Fold:
Amino acid sequence: MAHPGDKFPIVTERLNHWFGMGEARKQAIFDVSLEIDAGKLTILVGPSGSGKTTLLTLIGCLRDVQNGSAQLLGQELNNASEAELTASRQKLGFIFQAHNLHESLTALQNVRMGLEVHARQSPSKKADTYNVAAAHLLNLVGLGDRQKYLPSNLSGGQKQRVAVARALVGNPLVVFADEPTAALDKESGRNVVALLRRLGQERGTTTVMVTHDNRILEMADRIVTLEEGRIVDDKRFDT
Ligand code: ADP
Ligand code: MG
Structure:
């Protein structure tokens, strides 16, 4: 059955956003209208301060929509209730520049956190199924033999792969990644994005990634360029 948002899980129409109040009020996003294709890797590029993170956090329900429309999986986010926003967030996965792993938790426990935030099952049932799911994802990202490692004993690339596993373990429909390779060397960065892309393709996940890392742009299905809060270029590729 078709659902609203099936073809375009993210749609914005004339989206605007301002920061600050009074004299300091400054517009960061201008009239952004965008349809993001389902199951593809869309990369947002643009100079520092061009509004990439702001746009990502607006469509990722991490920031209130002030003006215009943003629809995520058929849900209008402008004026959505807290319950609607929470329900929407549960369908998403996030990966940030710094891996944001808990240093006191093992790789497996960190990946489990990606399930525990949703807490859809009773605590007793959770333990086993969560461990199985988390271990499965660690295998998929090539860290099956690192389950018990603490982040401090993993390389930067490995930590970011744990973050990828944590973002994907709940089977999100949409994954948002904000400069996920910024802290990595060239090869690790490429590996992390290639992994994200492959898992996304296999699972039909829609991935929206911010980067100004030229080395990974060739993996994009589409590149949307922002400048001073506006879309100035938009290219789709046959991949
Ligand atoms: P990018 O991610 O492309 O570097 P951002 O979305 O972070 O850009 O920022 C876009 C614009 O909004 C910049 O001018 C930035 O200074 C401003 N901005 C971002 N976040 C805030 C904030 N929390 N408060 C005030 N201004 C902000
Ligand atoms: Mg940013």
